[in-house]
Amino acid sequence: MGEAIAVIETDKVTMDLEAEYDGTLLAILRADGETVIATHTIAWIGEPGEPIPSAAAPSVKAVHPSETAAQPDVAQPSGGMTGAVAEGGRVPASPAARRLAAGSGIPLAGIKGSGPGGAVLARDVQARGIADAQTIRATPLARKVAQASGVDLGSVSGTGTAGRIRRADVESHAAPRTAGAGSRQMSGMRRVIADKMLRSHQQVPSVTLFTRADITDLVALRERLTAGGASKISYTDFIVKAAATALRENPLINSVVESDRIVFIDRINIGVAVALEEGLIVPVIRDTDTLTVRQIAERGRELAAKARAGALLPEDYAGGTFTVTNLGMHGITEFTPLINVPESAILGVGAIEEGFRTIEGKGIQSRRVLSLCLTHDHRHIDGAPAAVFLGRVRALLEDGYVLLA
Predict the structure, then answer these.
(1) What is the mean pLDDT of the chain?
(2) Is 264 contained in some domain?
């Protein structure tokens, strides 16, 4: 009981499925990569030699004793964790820590444990993953491949955003790639994302509105706040705060369609899209309208680090009511983001550009201009209320000081 027996992939995370009973794995009913309804049986656990229910027989793959013996050893709890002395050089660690380490591609060796006798706990592995994500920038999948191949990530050059190490970088470092374009099977996470985006495109009659905000004053404000590295506040943090304020003033944008009803959601939980090698994930900053810009920045950094370390929990990405996605760092000025269903709107953010504007009494001046793109569900949100909301976001960004209140 408590041992990881399968890995489940969803549209958001990959997580271990733990056995709920003691015993031996007798049979596997589902193939690797197969899509399974949550309530369906995938395997049987029991006593060795115990007969498998006949109803399951047609699809059963019996597990030979030698197969279970060859599976990776998982620490059995003794008072909640392994002892301080490990046989065969094994690092003393709790079962949860071993599962998290295996799933994140983080070696237990070298992690200082905070448990009894120096045993490594799950929180120690999570802290190591976040620290690694902040020092050596690599995707969780790249870390797993590096661990399996014995590759030191410190010696790999990354080709991803901001020099981030991707799986292909590790594979290229370990051995030359096979020639030819080739193909690969979609991961479970990628398949679910593909299905969700297709449903959004096909089932939601969406419209995208575009505007441009003069954020010259906001740029100067941010530079003052971050001078000397004392504070880390991004433009996205200001945008999230502006969106949260505008959502509170325009509740229709924070509503959803359920059958023939429009349901207004009281809480404002804004998701901020984070790009991973495996797909897009949207950690949620809860009750965003009650937070300051600095609090939003702190929470956003925590969630992004957890996402890149593969340590997000279900509560970190569930319950979003609105999404912000920023492609400005890639030089994209305008785009039409797809709604993250079942939400009703998503705000796309483009690059900051130089522009010129006539200022009364000051003539033509060079200004910093930001593109904003709002996609909304036209079933219940018409163009006018969407434009009012987007205009409010623009006004808040143009007067950045009001966001610090």
Answers:
(1) 81
(2) yes
